[in-house]
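Weekly puzzle thread! Below is a chain. First person to post its structure in token form gets bragging rights.
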Amino acid sequence: MIDAEDVGGVHIKYLYHCRRQLWLYLRGIRPEHMSGLVQFGEAVHETSYTRSAAIDLGAAKLDFIDGQHWVHEVKSSTRPTPADQAQGRHYCHRLEQIGIDAKGAILHYPKTRRTHRYPYTPEAARQAQADIGDVLTVAGAPVSPDRLARSAWRGCSFTDYCWTE
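Winning reply:
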């Protein structure tokens, strides 16, 4: 179904946000286009840091990389999440695989005008590799993981798949 080389940033984000969401996404269920929050995030992305070009690494597409090899990601939320940090790690890992020594990830939060810097350490590299393994484990599961508690799914575009009874 999916190989390690095919794991992209969205897979990592969903792994940290909700494994059921990841499992559904891997099976082609993709209702994001109907989500107002997803549309808002796309608008923030399109209007922030417009002088920088996105970097397409195949399965992974990062917002931009600076001359000192820091990965930059623009986020629509107001504060960092473990999923944001994991995506940054993943992009550094992908760059490392093609011979670019990424220094780390800088996450930009335009709504609050804040940035957070996460160096790409050997520990971060090990975690990025483990995350890919976890995505492959979820992908190979014959049934979907359990849904999150209602208090944890706020704003999820997959709500109809988990809570319609």
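Puzzle host: Confirmed. Bonus trivia for everyone else. The longest strand covers residues 104-109.
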